Fold:
Amino acid sequence: MARDKDADRSVRGKQGHQLGPESKDPTRAVVIVPVLTRQPRDDESSRPRLSRSADARHDEAVGLASAIDLNPVHTAVVTVADPRPATLLGSGKVAEFAEIVKERKAELVIVDHPLTPVQQRNLEKELNAKVLDRTGLILEIFGERARTKEGTLQVELAHLNYQKGRLVRSWTHLERQRGGAGFLGGPGETQIESDRRILQDKITKLKHELETVRRTRDLHRAKRKKVPFPVVAIVGYTNAGKSTLFNRLTGAGVLAEDMLFATLDPTLRRVRLPHGTPVILSDTVGFISDLPTHLVAAFRATLEEVVEADLVLHLRDISDPDTAAQAEDVERILGDLGVDAADANRVIEVWNKVDLLDEGNRERLLAESASGKAPPISISAVTGEGIDALKALIETRVSGELERMTVTLSPAQLGQVDWLYRNGDVISRTDNEDGSVTLSLTATHSARQEIENRLHRRSGS
Structure:
């Protein structure tokens, strides 16, 4: 299945990884999506992954290319029954794509599958164009999106680890050896050894810098724990609407676009829930299938916000045909981080984009969710549908169920009235003749304890 596309886009990677020549014209790219007929299995359970449709795989690959403004002049889905160690694809397909690259004047070939260094080098020779596999493309996108110092360091570390094993394909002079004179005579170290040593030195330096960042983040986390605000982390597949939901809940101006990996750097904001409970909300980088392991390792400091969170919102794009497979990928990465996605006390599944469903599908999905032990909550981060119910559920999880209580404030305690209105839902108020005030209200369990503590302190008893 092949598709031709022309779009007016330009491309430029960060950190020196420029994908095309600096000009007005965008980099012309051929996108190849290999579909292996034998599905990979989980190492632990030997359970096959949920299969993705070829169209969904194709659309995601094109979306990744579009995320850094490539111009996909030709896209194709290729069934691979017998992956070749040298080129992944069969020789006939490689020759066919070589003609397409030449005919379309493409400068770049995207292969939406992990490639070994040998496969990448051989494909570049056969296709006469630069080749990027899925991992390399994700790294380019991350390099484009990183804004903070921490994000930039994490991307650079992942990029160097990725390049270290691929020097053989990138350099034409690595066969040369530098000899010495006198007692330093002999062949000396090869150029490739020198370049690998330089890369390793850079990797070591970056790890030290990231360790400093990690310690700083740990200090900030420790300070937050001294003022014990619960932390709520939003996770989900890329483009599930995490930043849109974050903006809806906090009023922040985080970049939220219909684009893969629109947000890379984590953002934290303090939010006050309907009954006054303060929480710290964290927006995280989107997950994606086959996320490179060394990239997960590089972003470990960032992802620790998820590990340390009191509550995790697993946001799903329920309008996507591949939502079940995407949810499985997110759950797998959460499991790698030590977070059990099946723990209903800690993880809330949130179905986003219900406004994009037709009436029939919407009723069916809602009926299915109602039959579960811990039914998901359905929302639209764009329209605001279901947001109040989500806030109430978050507050219940972090502060306990609402409780009815009646308090009488003496004239000396009237300064607490404003606090009670902000941290509880006042049902009625009675101003007594002796100057005291009686309030009937509902409050969360934790708020009730705080109210009792405040009144106890004020009474001096």
About this structure: Residues 5-23, 42-46, 168-189 have pLDDT under 50 and may be disordered.
